[in-house]
Amino acid sequence: MPPFGASREEFLIPPLSLQLMACSALLAVPLTLAGCGQARESAEAPEHKAIILATTTSTQDSGLLDELLPLFEEQTGYLVKPIAVGTGEALAMGERGDADVLLAHAPAREKEIVAAGFVINRRIVMHNDFLIVGPEEDPAGIHGSDNGAESVERIAETGTRFTSRGDDSGTHFLEMSLWDAAALDPGGDWYISTGQGMGATLLIAAEMRAYVLTDRATYLALRDRTGLVPHVEGDPLFLNIYSVLEVNPERFPEVNSAGARAFSQFILGREAQEIIRRFGVEQFGQPLFFPDAGKSEESVGAFPRDGPRGLTPAPGRAPDDLTPWS
Amino acid sequence: MELIWNGITQALSLLLQGNPQVLEIALLSLELSGLATLVALVFGVPFGALLAFKVFPGRGFTVTLVNTGMGVPPVVVGLFVSIVLWRSGPLGFLELLYTPGAIVLAQFIIAFPVITGLTMAALQQIDPKLLLQLKGLGASRIQLVAVLLWETRLPMLAAIIAGFGAVISEVGAVMMVGGNILGHTRVLTTATVLETRRGNFEVAIALGLILLALTFLITWLLTLFQQRSAAR
After folding, report:
1. Within its chain, how far is the Cα of A128 from the centroid?
2. A61 and B198: CB-CB below 8 Å?
3. What contacts A189, CB < 8 A, 6 or more positions away?
4. Cα dihedral B97/B99/B100/B105 (nearest 10)
5. Cross-chain CB nearest to A199 (options B17, B21, B199)
6. From A7, A11, A222, residue closest to B199, measured CB to CB
7. What is the end-to-end Cα distance of chain B in Å, rounded?
8. Which of A4, A51, A60, A248 to probe the B interface (max B CBs under 10 A)?
9. d(CA A231, CA A219)
């Protein structure tokens, strides 16, 4: 049964959910005890509790934030207000000082607003990859390609339907760079600009039997619903890097900079990174995100062009070692 | 069809189990929309009465504004309230954006013209002879309005139903000014959008059905009261 909000258990039939509650209560005891030191520290509740986190939709639509935020709030006493918008809008909120901390995935744009002094301390949190998915019958015949620009060119040539986010999100930025690389200006009946988030756009693509560029996390979370299949993966451009950025308190004095720093430290910390690593593995058989705290952009890595594509583990690798290109 | 059935069964199981998250979201929806309607009544009824009885310069223009407001797209209200409440906006210092207060404010702005306009229309339908008679009997202005409101209780209840119905079913403005934050500003409509976006259609349907049931229940109670008064 599908998850709702943070806890999946609530949707199970009562007796089972009771058992699960009992189990999780037992499990929680040692965790709570272990967390006591931190909890006590935070008991001196922070002066400015609310943190506005402007984030890309994929972290919310995939359910990752539901795992991370309660833990952060419990440990620190802060209260996070996640506003899930496209990366473009999230960065704009940072530029206006209307958020305290940002989670975004458009490195080039992020560096621009860092250089302009609106935000500080951009740090890489995690990555996954983009892929082009579409109807199984593959009307444009692009299945198996690892070249995004060539693939969108084929889609345009054949006039096959393609759904675009059209919302200045990180995914939309990448899509535009694919059209640029193919020297094309997309438009026409086949080009559908949804203006909505990733989840909604995938659902529209499924209904219209269209191709769509998507991040892997949202795609996997909705795979069973949409029935769309991966066609193009492994293009070096498809690397999808998520970073955390703190809004510059020198520029915007009203920003909750202590809260922003605490969140940034938390999401880069060992515990959160471990949650990110494990998130979705059980449900989807593969991770949705790969933790990258402390890494530079270069070391997050390029795709192994000659190696296995996508996130399929190479033969002979340890089965639990699913990280493909780190 | 199967999906809808699953949605219905899930809605029932959520309700019967008393799922705490769903209850919290449903209660929050009721509280915020109820409060916004109440505030809109407190301001809208006197204002509607003023427009109905008092002649003053600019009255025609004000009435046009109110009537336009009755049909104003809520998403425009959402955008306007967001811009005003941004930290960088004129009321940013209040730190209201992404709080339940911001939702009540936006919903108030949506409900206020509806209630004002319908109050005005209701009071204007009153036979002018009744007015004369009441004045002749020496009723004070407040007594006058009280009697008239009682006389117009049927259309007044319709005004409450219309105002409440407009805000509890609203999603665009609430999403923009509230931010859909779990436990703070996530209401039934925005939760439905989120679950749809996540592809959890059963849950989305369940939430939608709960919203329908709530709206029906409240409208039914008000209608019951209205029709019982009518029968007298």
Report:
1. 8
2. yes
3. A159
4. -20
5. B199
6. A222
7. 45
8. A4
9. 12
Q: Check if the interface score ipTM surpasses 0.90.
A: no
B107 min Cα distance to partner chain A (Å): 20
Please give the DSSP secondary-structure letter assigned to residue B169: T
The helix (H) or strand (E) run that includes residue A127 is: strand A119-134
Dihedral, CA atoms, B209, B214, B216, B220, nearest 10 degrees?
Answer: 160
Cα torsion through A207, A212, A214, A218, rounded to 10: 0
- The residue in chain A having the minimum alpha-carbon distance to the alpha carbon of residue B201 is A2
List of residues 6+ apart from B84 with CB closer than 8 A: B90, B91
Residue in B with minimal Cα distance to A17: B17
Residue B114 tokens, joined: 């509806």
Amino acid symbol at A32: T
**Buried b / exposed e across A187-209, counting CB within 10 Å, b at 16+?**
eeebbbebebbbbbbbbbbbebe
Q: Which of B206, B148, B189, B227 is nearest to B15 (CA)?
A: B206
Minimal Cβ distance to A197: which of B14, B197, B200: B197
What CA–CA distance (Å, rounded) separates A24 from A89? Answer: 38
Query: Which region, left, alpha or beta, applies to residue B97 given φ > 0 means left and ψ of -120 to 50 means alpha?
Result: beta
Cβ B44 vs Cβ B116: under 8 Å: yes
pLDDT digits 0-9 by tens, A37-88 = 333 344 456 778 899 999 998 898 888 999 999 999 999 999 999 999 889 8
Model confidence band, residue A31 (pLDDT cutoffs 50, 70, 90): very low
